[in-house]
Amino acid sequence: AAMDVPARESGGMAAVYHEDGSPADFTAADLLGTDKAQAMAMLRNFACLDAVFEEKPYSDCCYLNCKPLGLSVRLKPATVGRVDVVFLYGEGVDGFSAYRLGSLPEGLEWSHVSRNVVQLLGEPSDKFGGGRQAVGISYELLGLDVTFKNRSWEDASNPMAFIAVFPRKDQAFDLCVVCCKRACFHCGRCRTRRYCSSTCQKQDWRSHERECHNIVAAPALCAPGIDGPCRMALVSAQGLPERSAPATDT
Q1: Where in the chain does DSSP place strands (E)?
Q2: Residue 168: which of 140, 194, 136 has the closest Cα?
Q3: Are 8 and 15 within 8 A, CB to CB?
């Protein structure tokens, strides 16, 4: 087991070590479900006893950034919230240092480019961005979004910008609600129902229509001032997914 103390100082940082002297590896997913105090205590215990945390509150969520650690968390709701997404940054992205507090999830490394990510993790469950936004891919069954630095889908050497870690989806999440084939599309209005084709979507509309209207009528999930949704998929009526970055300084 990892020891809480003593911690070895290194460049203003303090790391937790195992009894045999090897560094204890921090797992970002361990922050999921913690409240603000627990998340801050965990991070200070592992690496940064005097860490400066920047808090960015919005109406429905709050971001807690620790740029020296290359890490940010989102808590929902904004008050008395719990961490539902952990963002791990590459060097220099939005002023963050590279995340090196622990290993990246699923064997990823910061040296990996888009081609390497797909080779390692397989075909993604979703794609987002492009045009004016950096492109990214999602592995919802693994609880991962990977956002790259550049905007072109043709760039197979696109470096990773940041990784979002969130609770893994159940295996059934990736299946069409009608025929149970692999789902490639969301409902373009509520974005919650998944389908393999427009045929299944049309077939399901009669039973889904009322639920869909209720979801769309509910308050928006994202706070004013955030460019797009906080993290979750936003799929247009044409079935094209988009995602936004975590909170920024702009």
Answers
A1: 8-10, 13-15, 54-57, 62-66, 71-76, 82-89, 126-130, 133-139, 144-148, 160-165, 185-186, 194-195, 234-235, 241-242
A2: 140
A3: yes
Q: Which long-range contacts (CB under 8 A, 24 or more apart) does 147-155 make?
A: 147/243, 147/245, 148/113, 148/114, 149/90, 149/93, 153/127, 155/114
Nearest alpha-carbon partner for 161 in 112, 106, 222, 234 = 112
Return the amino acid letter for 188. G
Closest of 65, 44, 34 to residue 246, by C-alpha: 65
Give residue for tokens 């609880």: 143
The b/e string for 16-44 (b: 16+ C-beta within 10 A; e otherwise) is: bbeeeeeebebebbebbebebeebbeebb
DSSP 13-55: EEE-BBTTSPBPPP-GGGGTT-BHHHHHHHHHHHT-TTPPPEE
pLDDT in tens, 107-119: 999 999 999 999 9
CA proximity to 138, closest of 246, 243, 222, 33 = 243
Q: Which two tokens stand for residue 80?
A: 């008395």
Tokens read off for 104: 């990246």
Instruction: Encode pLDDT of 57-114 as tens digits.
Output: 998 899 999 999 899 999 999 888 999 999 999 999 999 999 988 899 999 999 999 9
Q: Token pair of 49, please?
A: 């006893």
Residue owning tokens 């993790």: 121
Give the Cα separation of 47 and 25 in Å (integer). 10
Q: How far apart are CA 171 and CA 176, in angstroms?
A: 11
